[in-house]
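Methods: holo model generation. Sequences were used as deposited, without trimming of termini or removal of tags, and paired with ligand SMILES retrieved from the corresponding compound records. Each pair was processed once, and we did not select among multiple samples. The sequence and magnesium ion SMILES for this entry were:
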Amino acid sequence: MSSDYLIKLENVTKEFSGKKGRVKALEDINLEIKRGEFVVIVGPSGAGKTTLLNIMAGMDRPTKGRVIFSGRDYGDLDEEELAKLRREKFGFIFQFFNLIDSLTVVENVIAPALPSDLPIREISARAEELLAGMKLLSKKYRFPKELSAGEQQRVAIARAMITKPEVLFCDEPTAQLDEEMTEKVLNDLIEINRAGTTVILATASETVANKLRRSGARTIHIEYGKITSTETPRRS
Ligand SMILES: Nc1ncnc2c1ncn2[C@@H]1O[C@H](COP(=O)(O)OP(=O)(O)O)[C@@H](O)[C@H]1O
Ligand SMILES: [Mg+2]
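and the model returned the structure below.
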Protein backbone atom coordinates (compact mmCIF):
# COMPACT_ATOMS: atom_id res chain seq x y z
CA MET A 1 0.00 0.00 0.00
CA SER A 2 1.60 3.27 -1.00
CA SER A 3 0.44 6.56 0.40
CA ASP A 4 0.55 9.70 -1.70
CA TYR A 5 2.64 11.56 0.83
CA LEU A 6 6.06 10.78 2.23
CA ILE A 7 5.92 12.83 5.42
CA LYS A 8 2.75 13.92 7.15
CA LEU A 9 2.41 16.12 10.22
CA GLU A 10 -0.91 16.15 12.02
CA ASN A 11 -1.65 18.89 14.55
CA VAL A 12 1.96 19.11 15.63
CA THR A 13 2.69 21.34 18.59
CA LYS A 14 6.12 21.61 20.21
CA GLU A 15 6.71 23.36 23.49
CA PHE A 16 10.00 23.87 25.25
CA SER A 17 10.35 24.77 28.87
CA GLY A 18 12.85 27.57 29.17
CA LYS A 19 13.88 30.09 31.82
CA LYS A 20 10.85 32.25 31.14
CA GLY A 21 8.42 29.37 31.30
CA ARG A 22 7.11 27.45 28.33
CA VAL A 23 7.84 28.47 24.75
CA LYS A 24 5.59 27.28 21.95
CA ALA A 25 8.05 26.68 19.12
CA LEU A 26 5.40 25.11 16.87
CA GLU A 27 1.65 25.39 17.12
CA ASP A 28 -0.79 23.03 15.43
CA ILE A 29 1.18 22.40 12.25
CA ASN A 30 -0.49 20.35 9.53
CA LEU A 31 1.67 19.50 6.56
CA GLU A 32 2.00 16.82 3.91
CA ILE A 33 5.11 16.42 1.84
CA LYS A 34 5.01 14.28 -1.29
CA ARG A 35 7.80 12.05 -2.45
CA GLY A 36 10.11 13.96 -4.79
CA GLU A 37 9.02 17.41 -3.65
CA PHE A 38 11.34 20.32 -2.93
CA VAL A 39 9.91 22.14 0.07
CA VAL A 40 11.31 25.39 1.44
CA ILE A 41 10.46 26.45 4.98
CA VAL A 42 11.04 30.19 5.17
CA GLY A 43 10.74 32.47 8.17
CA PRO A 44 12.69 34.78 10.45
CA SER A 45 15.06 33.64 13.16
CA GLY A 46 13.12 32.02 16.00
CA ALA A 47 10.11 31.18 13.81
CA GLY A 48 10.45 27.46 14.47
CA LYS A 49 12.21 26.25 11.31
CA THR A 50 14.86 24.13 13.00
CA THR A 51 12.30 22.69 15.39
CA LEU A 52 10.10 21.78 12.43
CA LEU A 53 12.95 20.04 10.58
CA ASN A 54 14.00 18.20 13.74
CA ILE A 55 10.48 16.93 14.27
CA MET A 56 10.05 15.88 10.64
CA ALA A 57 13.37 14.03 10.80
CA GLY A 58 12.50 12.26 14.04
CA MET A 59 15.29 13.98 15.96
CA ASP A 60 12.85 15.54 18.35
CA ARG A 61 9.40 14.48 19.51
CA PRO A 62 6.33 16.74 19.29
CA THR A 63 4.54 17.72 22.50
CA LYS A 64 1.24 17.05 20.72
CA GLY A 65 0.31 15.60 17.35
CA ARG A 66 1.66 12.94 15.04
CA VAL A 67 4.44 12.60 12.50
CA ILE A 68 4.21 9.87 9.88
CA PHE A 69 6.96 8.94 7.43
CA SER A 70 6.08 6.56 4.64
CA GLY A 71 3.20 5.14 6.64
CA ARG A 72 5.21 4.78 9.87
CA ASP A 73 4.10 6.80 12.88
CA TYR A 74 7.16 8.00 14.79
CA GLY A 75 5.10 7.62 17.95
CA ASP A 76 5.22 3.83 17.41
CA LEU A 77 9.02 3.77 17.17
CA ASP A 78 11.51 3.75 20.05
CA GLU A 79 14.70 5.82 19.97
CA GLU A 80 16.75 3.04 18.42
CA GLU A 81 14.24 2.43 15.64
CA LEU A 82 14.05 6.16 14.95
CA ALA A 83 17.85 6.40 14.82
CA LYS A 84 17.95 3.54 12.31
CA LEU A 85 15.30 5.21 10.18
CA ARG A 86 17.28 8.48 10.18
CA ARG A 87 20.50 6.72 9.30
CA GLU A 88 18.97 4.77 6.43
CA LYS A 89 16.45 7.21 4.96
CA PHE A 90 17.61 10.74 5.75
CA GLY A 91 20.55 12.97 4.96
CA PHE A 92 21.33 16.21 6.77
CA ILE A 93 23.10 19.44 5.90
CA PHE A 94 23.63 22.23 8.41
CA GLN A 95 24.56 25.89 8.47
CA PHE A 96 28.04 25.22 9.86
CA PHE A 97 28.76 22.17 7.68
CA ASN A 98 29.60 19.98 10.72
CA LEU A 99 32.44 18.17 8.95
CA ILE A 100 34.92 16.28 11.10
CA ASP A 101 38.12 18.34 11.05
CA SER A 102 40.45 15.43 11.76
CA LEU A 103 39.22 13.46 8.74
CA THR A 104 40.07 14.12 5.11
CA VAL A 105 37.40 15.19 2.64
CA VAL A 106 36.90 11.68 1.29
CA GLU A 107 36.86 10.17 4.79
CA ASN A 108 34.16 12.65 5.79
CA VAL A 109 32.07 11.63 2.78
CA ILE A 110 32.47 7.93 3.47
CA ALA A 111 31.79 8.04 7.21
CA PRO A 112 27.95 7.87 7.26
CA ALA A 113 27.96 4.76 5.03
CA LEU A 114 30.29 2.74 7.25
CA PRO A 115 27.50 1.28 9.45
CA SER A 116 25.81 -0.08 6.29
CA ASP A 117 26.47 -3.54 4.83
CA LEU A 118 27.94 -2.14 1.63
CA PRO A 119 31.49 -3.21 0.81
CA ILE A 120 34.00 -0.43 1.44
CA ARG A 121 35.12 -0.52 -2.20
CA GLU A 122 31.60 0.32 -3.30
CA ILE A 123 31.33 3.10 -0.74
CA SER A 124 34.66 4.57 -1.86
CA ALA A 125 33.64 4.45 -5.49
CA ARG A 126 30.42 6.27 -4.72
CA ALA A 127 32.27 8.86 -2.62
CA GLU A 128 34.59 9.56 -5.54
CA GLU A 129 31.66 9.82 -7.91
CA LEU A 130 29.91 12.31 -5.63
CA LEU A 131 33.08 14.37 -5.17
CA ALA A 132 33.71 14.33 -8.92
CA GLY A 133 30.17 15.59 -9.46
CA MET A 134 31.00 18.48 -7.14
CA LYS A 135 34.34 19.11 -8.91
CA LEU A 136 36.08 18.37 -5.62
CA LEU A 137 37.82 15.11 -6.44
CA SER A 138 41.24 16.78 -6.61
CA LYS A 139 40.74 17.84 -2.98
CA LYS A 140 39.78 14.45 -1.59
CA TYR A 141 42.86 14.19 0.63
CA ARG A 142 42.59 17.74 1.96
CA PHE A 143 41.20 18.50 5.40
CA PRO A 144 37.98 20.51 5.74
CA LYS A 145 39.73 23.59 7.13
CA GLU A 146 41.85 23.77 3.96
CA LEU A 147 38.72 24.33 1.87
CA SER A 148 36.59 27.42 1.35
CA ALA A 149 33.23 27.63 3.14
CA GLY A 150 31.38 26.83 -0.07
CA GLU A 151 33.59 23.84 -0.79
CA GLN A 152 33.07 22.57 2.75
CA GLN A 153 29.32 22.77 2.34
CA ARG A 154 29.53 20.88 -0.94
CA VAL A 155 31.58 18.17 0.79
CA ALA A 156 28.81 18.07 3.39
CA ILE A 157 26.28 17.56 0.59
CA ALA A 158 28.33 14.67 -0.83
CA ARG A 159 28.51 13.21 2.67
CA ALA A 160 24.75 13.51 3.12
CA MET A 161 24.15 11.76 -0.24
CA ILE A 162 26.50 8.81 0.33
CA THR A 163 23.73 6.70 1.85
CA LYS A 164 21.30 7.57 -0.99
CA PRO A 165 18.78 9.14 1.38
CA GLU A 166 15.12 9.42 0.47
CA VAL A 167 14.95 12.83 2.12
CA LEU A 168 17.65 15.47 2.39
CA PHE A 169 17.07 17.92 5.26
CA CYS A 170 18.94 21.21 4.91
CA ASP A 171 18.95 23.70 7.80
CA GLU A 172 20.08 27.13 6.56
CA PRO A 173 22.66 25.54 4.27
CA THR A 174 23.71 28.81 2.64
CA ALA A 175 23.64 31.15 5.65
CA GLN A 176 27.45 31.20 5.84
CA LEU A 177 28.07 31.47 2.10
CA ASP A 178 28.62 34.34 -0.30
CA GLU A 179 26.31 34.86 -3.27
CA GLU A 180 28.34 32.82 -5.72
CA MET A 181 28.66 29.82 -3.42
CA THR A 182 25.01 30.10 -2.40
CA GLU A 183 24.12 29.81 -6.07
CA LYS A 184 26.30 26.72 -6.48
CA VAL A 185 24.96 24.99 -3.39
CA LEU A 186 21.35 25.72 -4.37
CA ASN A 187 22.01 24.38 -7.86
CA ASP A 188 23.49 21.20 -6.36
CA LEU A 189 20.37 20.77 -4.25
CA ILE A 190 18.05 21.40 -7.21
CA GLU A 191 19.93 18.77 -9.18
CA ILE A 192 19.75 16.27 -6.31
CA ASN A 193 16.01 16.87 -6.13
CA ARG A 194 15.57 16.41 -9.88
CA ALA A 195 17.36 13.07 -9.57
CA GLY A 196 14.59 11.97 -7.21
CA THR A 197 15.51 12.88 -3.64
CA THR A 198 12.93 14.78 -1.61
CA VAL A 199 14.56 17.97 -0.32
CA ILE A 200 13.32 19.97 2.68
CA LEU A 201 15.21 23.19 3.25
CA ALA A 202 14.88 25.84 5.97
CA THR A 203 16.05 29.38 5.34
CA ALA A 204 15.61 32.86 6.76
CA SER A 205 16.43 34.31 3.32
CA GLU A 206 13.61 35.40 1.02
CA THR A 207 16.17 35.59 -1.78
CA VAL A 208 17.01 31.92 -1.36
CA ALA A 209 13.32 31.02 -1.10
CA ASN A 210 12.52 32.99 -4.26
CA LYS A 211 15.25 31.34 -6.27
CA LEU A 212 14.09 27.90 -5.21
CA ARG A 213 10.48 28.78 -5.92
CA ARG A 214 11.44 29.81 -9.46
CA SER A 215 12.98 26.38 -9.92
CA GLY A 216 9.74 24.69 -8.81
CA ALA A 217 9.92 24.43 -5.03
CA ARG A 218 6.91 24.79 -2.74
CA THR A 219 7.52 27.54 -0.21
CA ILE A 220 5.96 27.50 3.23
CA HIS A 221 6.21 30.62 5.36
CA ILE A 222 6.28 30.21 9.11
CA GLU A 223 6.16 32.81 11.84
CA TYR A 224 5.87 32.31 15.58
CA GLY A 225 5.53 28.57 15.07
CA LYS A 226 2.61 28.78 12.65
CA ILE A 227 2.28 28.38 8.89
CA THR A 228 1.25 31.77 7.54
CA SER A 229 1.18 31.01 3.80
CA THR A 230 2.11 28.40 1.23
CA GLU A 231 3.02 28.87 -2.40
CA THR A 232 2.71 25.75 -4.50
CA PRO A 233 4.29 25.73 -7.95
CA ARG A 234 2.21 24.85 -10.95
CA ARG A 235 2.79 21.21 -11.77
CA SER A 236 4.18 20.66 -15.23
N1 LIG B 1 15.91 23.27 23.03
C1 LIG B 1 15.21 24.39 23.19
N2 LIG B 1 14.88 24.82 24.45
C2 LIG B 1 14.13 25.92 24.63
N3 LIG B 1 13.65 26.70 23.63
C3 LIG B 1 13.95 26.32 22.36
C4 LIG B 1 14.74 25.17 22.08
N4 LIG B 1 14.87 25.05 20.74
C5 LIG B 1 14.19 26.08 20.22
N5 LIG B 1 13.64 26.86 21.18
C6 LIG B 1 12.81 28.05 20.98
O1 LIG B 1 11.81 27.73 20.02
C7 LIG B 1 11.62 28.79 19.10
C8 LIG B 1 11.90 28.32 17.69
O2 LIG B 1 13.29 28.03 17.56
P1 LIG B 1 13.93 27.45 16.24
O3 LIG B 1 13.14 26.29 15.79
O4 LIG B 1 15.37 27.25 16.50
O5 LIG B 1 13.71 28.66 15.20
P2 LIG B 1 14.46 28.99 13.83
O6 LIG B 1 15.19 27.76 13.39
O7 LIG B 1 13.35 29.39 12.90
O8 LIG B 1 15.37 30.13 14.11
C9 LIG B 1 12.52 29.92 19.57
O9 LIG B 1 11.77 30.76 20.41
C10 LIG B 1 13.58 29.19 20.34
O10 LIG B 1 14.16 30.02 21.32
MG1 LIG C 1 17.19 27.46 12.95
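The chain has seven helices and ten strands.
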